[in-house]
Amino acid sequence: MARILEPRPEPEGLRSYAEPQPLAGSMPLLTRSSSPSNPANISVLSPLRWLVTMGILVVASLVGFLVCLQFGAERISLSEAFSMILRLLQEGRAILESSGPAATILLDVRLPRLALSFLVGGTLATVGVGLQALLRNPLADPYVLGISSGAALGAAVAMLLGVGTAVGGMSALSLAAFAGGLLAIVLVYRIAMGSGDLPMPTLLLAGVIITAICSALVMFITSVLDPARAYTMISWLMGTLSAPDGVAFAVLIGVTALGGLALFHQARALNVLTLGEEAARSLGVEVERVKRTIFVISALMTGAAVSVSGLIGFVGMVVPHAVRMVLGADHRVVMPASALIGGLFLMVADTVARTALAPAEIPVGVVTALVGGPFFVYLLVARRGVMR
Predict the structure, then answer these.
(1) CA distance 35 to 50
(2) Residue 282 contacts residue 117 (beta carbons within 8 Å)
(3) Which CATH superfamily is domain 47-387 in?
(4) Which of 103, 181, 218, 269 is 20 to 30 Å from 51 at the Cα level?
(5) In terms of Cα–Cα distance, which of 71, 102, 72 is closest to 87?
């Protein structure tokens, strides 16, 4: 009887995912605390170490932004960039008339594009963290679960119908992508729902099915478009970070900020959910509410990102998993760190896309796929080795 009641050891894969890991190096992000208020000697996140880590990542992102600012079809030195930005603050838009094409390239093209790439990369990486935690699977991301394809279908329908602008001058593509992403995630959720629970394998399979259907419809719509719009649609599907209109950019900022804060608010619940839904319920987590929150916010954030950038795959899968490998699995760290590193990653990818074959430009989605594809294979091989 004693043998039967003996607690079973927790599976290694689950333990490594659920238990916060130390930061690589000599400065662990998480410390062990043994006190009367913490008798179980549970890993505790140090606020000071959290601030130091986020500070380092913010500085790295700023440095990456400044480095990427210099490269493109036309090289602009950092000193010239600073001079133009200072003159812009002092003289306003009049600088564009007196400074030649370099100022126009920097202020009207390169700066907005880098800002957009940082926002889109951070958004996709943040959504990837939430979905991977919810599914307890590091291979999940918005692209795999069909959210991106649904948003793309919404944008394709808007392009087919030739819808111009919507309320407030905002591009109809943005609203259509919002609707398409939300519809896709609702369909995936409904298809996967069993008797009150949401099994992960079924959810992933439902995402693959919705992705296939949406992709087929997008290809059909593209085939019946006139050549000019078909070329625009194909370019959009391969990922593009051309500066959007002001309203769409403002909406993306608002959705990213509010959605990111809402997901970060669920970080503690996500930490508990990595132990399993039953364990989370026993610890007081409203599992179904957390699921609905994560899925709806993920759809809105992904729809906003896809509406201005097209399909950029693998960012939401590669970045969170890489961050988790280095910084550990505590979502209070992984989520903001992934947002910063995701933005930095997409800025660098877009810079490579702009400069590798300059003056021609590679779609940024091609660059991220060339990085994410091999990484995806590595994850599959690593997981297969663990399962053996």
Answers:
(1) 21
(2) no
(3) ABC transporter involved in vitamin B12 uptake, BtuC (1.10.3470.10)
(4) 269
(5) 102
pLDDT tens for 39-72 read: 333 456 778 888 999 999 999 999 999 999 888 8
Read off the amino acid at residue 262: A
Name the residue among 64, 75, 66 with its Cα closest to residue 359: 75
**Degrees, nearest 5: CA angle 27-33-38:** 155
- Nearest to residue 19, comparing CAs of 50, 43, 46? 43
pTM, 2 dp: 0.81
385: CB partners within 8 A, 6+ apart? none
Contact criterion met (CB below 8 Å) for 318 and 372: yes
86-103 pLDDT tens trace: 877 777 666 666 667 777
CA distance 286 to 281: 6
Q: 280 and 294 in contact (C-beta within 8 Å)?
A: no
Closest by CA to 376, choosing from 302, 315, 300, 305, is: 315
Is residue 257 classed as helix, strand or coil in its secondary structure?
Answer: helix
Spatial contact of 45 and 328, defined as CB atoms under 8 Å apart: no
DSSP assignment of 323-348: HHHHH-S-HHHHHHHHHHHHHHHHHH
